Structures
1.
Amino acid sequence: MATNNGGDFPEDLIREILLKLPVKALLRFKCVCKNWYTLIKNPCFIREHLNFSKNNS
């Protein structure tokens, strides 16, 4: 299970939510906190987001 990192929700839940958002929203949400910035800029997350977007558009 992913760590909480001081927030109210587990990191894996945040990841699943962010994967479903449009790119424009992700660009805004990079500013929410350092953890979100790090996650959104991660090449693995970017690849996963692209694959999710392709399969669900």
2.
Amino acid sequence: MIDSATLTAIRHNPLLSGLDDAEQSVLVSLGATTRLPAGTVLYERGDAARHLFVVVEGTIALYVPDEPGTTVPLYPLSPGDSAGEESLAPDSHYDMSARVITDAVVFSIESRRLSRLLDQRFDLVLGMLVGMSTRLRGLVREITALKMASTAERLGIFLLELVEARASSRHEGKGDGRIVVTLPFSKQMLAQKLGMQPESLSRAFGKLRRFGVQGAGQTQVVIGDPAGLRAFCQPESPT
């Protein structure tokens, strides 16, 4: 029986979303969905790349090992994100390490199984190329935002993405125009993702207070004026 949560994650994955429903079902049938506790290491940098992973629930972090016994988180992955794309190339190794940050559910497929499937189904190759192109465009947009946007704008853009993303469609409306979104990872990791120090993130939240942005517990954020925040984050039109 195909797990619906796994299918949903794959449909939201930029690499795999170009596959049609039947192709995605074939993909899921060849892999495994596993529940993993926080702290589980999926793979270490330099390991032979033998699996592609897709986050179904929870948070995973990609990082480069630092001094012995310490790690530096680089990029948090939420449901629908993938890790281990290096496995799509033959005889490859993982460029970074991956660790489960919060209890997670992860779909994995062995690269040899995926390769055999791709050998038989050229249409799958085309679909994955579309997905890779979409992901590349998304990364370019993120890099551009980091270079061009202020810290407050970066935070605002991220919060608006949570509002708009289907994965966050369970956000709670307050009935007065306010919206509550849930952060998919800690504020420390959010600062890392947005390319700023934790103290800069705190100041960015302060600058967005005029749009009714305020914390509601450890993981929830209230957006009191979504329209105002959206206008603030949009670049000015050239004159």
